[in-house]
Hints:
Layout: H1 9-12, H2 18-31, H3 36-49, H4 53-67, H5 77-84, E1 89-94, H6 102-119, E2 127-130, H7 138-146, H8 158-181, E3 184-187, H9 192-209, E4 216-221, H10 227-241, E5 245-250, H11 255-265, H12 275-291, E6 296-301, H13 305-317, E7 327-332, H14 337-346, E8 350-356, H15 359-375, H16 379-396
Parallel strand pairs: 1-2, 1-8, 2-3, 3-4, 4-5, 5-6, 6-7, 7-8
Helix pairs in contact: 2-16, 3-15, 4-15, 6-8, 7-9, 10-12, 12-13
Amino acid sequence: MATVSFDNTEYAFAYKSDKDLKKAKFLFSTMSYPFFVPLGTRITPLLIKGKFPFINKAVRNTIFKQFVGGESLEDTKPLANLLKEYGVQIILDYAVEGKQGENIFDNNTDEFIRVINYAATQTNIPFISVKITGIARFDLLATLDEAPRLRSGIHDHEAETSEWNKVKDRLYAICATAAEKNIGVLIDAEESWIQDPVDRVTIEMMAEFNKEKPIVYNTIQLYRHDRLEFLKLSHKIAQQQQFILGIKLVRGAYMEKERARANNHNYPCPIQKNKEATDNDFNAAVTYCIDNIATISTIVASHNEASNMLAYDLLIQKNISLNHKHIHFSQLYGMSDNITFNLAQAGCNVSKYLPFGPIKDVIPYLMRRAQENSSVIGQTNRELVLIKRELKRRKSE
């Protein structure tokens, strides 16, 4: 069987008009300038808060349109329907970050449930994404992470125990709705110093809701040197407690912040020593999950062409159906269309991770996307090369 090609730009950009491609070319060209992203990520949030109409419009027509599905849940529908025509599914992400307070956490819980109920009415939205920091106080998670590793996961402070129980109740309500509606819940990874309680509550929810099919998924960041072993430990727990392990594999999103904090607080850095070590562990995790596909449901969430090709080749080698219910590929909307649409064309389960939310609230997400493109070696340039190649191909037709 011929292998899939990530160089096929005709499939990659079939859903984009010439005008859309030219806009994307302009954006990635701008982001390729060394000074642009560091400057832009600092001043754009301030300008948006200052309500400058010109800046708001410029952001809306460029980076917002490239990476975000819209300001409301309903805004995402035309794009979801368009992607559906090309065999690409959607992971919905209510991308409002950073706001704290019990009322806000309750409102976010209601919004996550609303997103699940909406997804259940659509045919190509199998998952939604949830950040625990959207329903729990960051400092509470940090306190619990430092607590003695009791079986309950909680230490002796009554007020914090009560607050944590509220968090678990919120997550239970989200996951219970998802189980009823048959929508997967992907729990985002967080910074290493708050990750432990996130892992524990996610395992608890898997034990409750993943008995017959995968509903709850934990996210494993393989730029941490301890996460491959954590994957294997999670699988062992799942086998002991007889539930299907749901795992989303990513490289990670907090590398610079992690190194700075480890240095400032004088503790061993949790980050891999180099990119090669990260790549090796990510690929080993992909292999482990596919080797155990009967008991692990995996989302390969990566923009790395070699890792996606590895997963694809393993499915072929092991004679596993490309659309097996326990294997799914995903890339962020606005990036790596050459991976997404060529995998979809080959018959794989593949999705775009599609955030939505008011522009002023989505700015932190957008700034991370800009930084991610500029920090991943060759990412922006690769996007540009493919866009230019497709524009040239269309011109020559």
